[in-house]
Amino acid sequence: MRKFIATLLLGASLFAGPAMAEQITIGLSAPLSGPQAYFGTTWHNGFKLYVDKLNADGGVNGVTVAYDQQDDKADPREGTLVAQKFCDNDKVVLGLVNFNSGVAQSTLPIYEDCSLPTMTFGSNPSLTKQGYKLMVRPVANDLAGALLPAEYALGKLSAKTALVVNDKQVFGQGISEIFAKNFQDGGGKVIDTISVAPSDVDFAAVLAQIKPKKPDVIYLGAVMPQLALFAKQMHEQGITATLIVPDGGYTPDLIKQAGEPNVQGTLVAIQVPPMDASPEIAEFAKLYKAKYGEEAGPYSIYGYVQGQILEQVLKTTKGLTREDINTALHAVKVKTAVGELEFDETGELKVAPSYLYKVEGSKFQLVGSK
Amino acid sequence: MGNLIQQTVNALTIGSIYALIALGYTMVYGVLRMINFAHGEMFMLGAYVAFLILSMLVGDVGMAGAIALTVAFVVAVFLVGFIGVGIERVAYKPLRNSTRLAPMLSSLGVSLSLVTGMQILAGPQPVAFPSFFPVVRYEVLGGTITSMQIGILVAAFVLMFGLHFLVNRSRIGIIVRAVSESRPTAQLLGINVNGAISMVFFVGPLLGAAGGILYASYYGIMSPTMGAVIGLKAFTAAILGGIGSIPGAMLGAFILAFVEVGGTALLPVITHGVLGTEYRDVLTFAILILVLLVRPAGILGEAVSEESIVYKREF
């Protein structure tokens, strides 16, 4: 008899639960361990900062947001496991997924199959050209990321020749090819393309081959810590070309690991504005520091912006199913901390900001934006 | 010409670091007929322990002076030497009379524990490591040699010469060689076998740690997984030179380094990026296979007697 009452009570409580308030879950997937952990955690932290604030204010129209944070280890195999997990969890209605283009490449088909809409962070241009109906990319792609540095090298540095080095990964090779194309279209000459292995730590042999070619600029399509190692060894070999690196280099580690004198003048292109670019961004930087006790990471502001996009989506969506969220996401038009954002039919940003920094002392100095 | 000199210097630098690590593999194998897979982690520990000592000595590691660096180097290599002896006591000695596979598997376990432990303690991220020498460039016949490279060459050769003296000219060396020849016979003759084995497990990790510190200092970073790839390379070098042979380990290391640098220098440039430096390992292992086809015991492999063949069959 007692057992019967207990069962009855349990049943009643199950019915009582969902009627109270609605909660949706956002799946977060990025490298949280390994060499790229810094990028993944600080990006997610930016998002959590916004969402926690949103929840504290009672959510959007009574809908609160939970998140399920998973480590994809920057590894496509891990990424697909996480993707399957999010797909199988009915509470997850949106994915904020994959820092690395190479990982996104293999997870996007899975998300597409289970109709889970995603905000993708991988910046390789090909990702939006594969006809995915459920993804948007709230960050500039590599076409934008490699245009500004090419223009700067030709215009401001009056560079005539460039040498391109890449690590043969989806991101590194892709962005360096785009740089080479932009540089050539602008009238420069690419004297050689050299590829290295992503696990390389010793570039001395390659650099000794580069030195006699005397390029004006060297573009290095790779990630950390290879960027720092290359910069250090390049300087130690006495190569004076200006080194240009993609967004992965926008971290204090670049300066620390290469050694300050070895990276002076190195150019870093990234989608992130300086933290004092506008009062709103400065406010974000302050909030971030107060909550996590450290400076905002290179992509934290985009996590925050994705939070703002999510808020707008929840305001405009018809319902909370994956389909409804997807429709609202593709139609979203929102004023965010980095400006007004909206997506085109392929999920690409209509206007994608991009910035160029130069290492001066122990700081990144803004030298151009677009 | 300048380029050739440049690449030779690069190869000698990496070769001497490989050699320092390869010696540990070869010594342990020479005495215990065991492959110590945890040896690559001694290399990693060397860098981390030196970093820890530096930060205790000077606070901000980047500002360390020459004296602090020397102290950190010496203390770290000795500490790692003692850690090596400790690992042998705990993980290998109890298994000494079991099958050959048991201590080898135990060493794999030690290796994984050390890497994971370091990831938990110090974080998985690569950490900046200070330069042991102020980097000055010297132009020699068109090539560039840095003070760092000269320092690594000198340090490595001093250590290798010291080892040569220890093994061939000292009393300890005689004991170690006797145990390596035949453990049961040495024991019957009243030689302290445990002492000799401890000595091997002290010197091997010490040299490995020295290699690790030089390596971290040369490239400017260290990470918990840095021992894995380079450990494999050094192991290959030891096999190539003839495992169990000390000159063989050094020779193997330098051959490997020259092949690697040659491959890395030529492949990407000849093929304009179609083939990248990832083929350096293909070259390395192709050479290894070729050498082993001709000389199965390695280039300077031990002279194989009837007795030692039987001895090795147990493996």
What does this structure look like?
Chain A contains 14 helices and 14 strands. Chain A has helices at residues 2-19, 37-56, 76-88, 101-113, 142-145, 147-155, 170-185, 204-210, 226-236, 252-258, 260-263, 279-292, 300-316, 322-330, and strands at 22-30, 63-71, 92-97, 118-120, 135-136, 161-166, 189-195, 217-221, 242-245, 267-270, 333-336, 339-342, 355-360, 363-369. The longest helix of chain A has 20 residues, at 37-56. Residues 12-20 of chain A have low confidence and may be disordered. In chain A, 44% of the residues lie in helices and 21% in strands. Chain A is of the alpha/beta class. In chain A, 54% of the residues are buried. In chain A, the strands form three sheets. In chain A, strands 7-6-8-9-10-13-14 form a seven-stranded mixed sheet, with helices on one face. A five-stranded parallel sheet of chain A has the order 2-1-3-4-5, with helices on both faces. Chain B has 315 residues and is mainly alpha-helical. Helices cover 74% and strands 4% of the residues of chain B. Chain B is globular and about 60 Å long. Classes of the chains: A alpha/beta (370), B mainly alpha (315). At the A-B interface, strand 7, helix 8, helix 9 and helix 10 of A face helix 1, strand 1, strand 3 and helix 10 of B.
Structure characteristics:
heterodimer, A: 370 residues, alpha/beta, 5-stranded parallel β-sheet, 14 strands, 44% helix, globular, B: 315 residues, mainly alpha, two-stranded antiparallel sheet, 12 helices
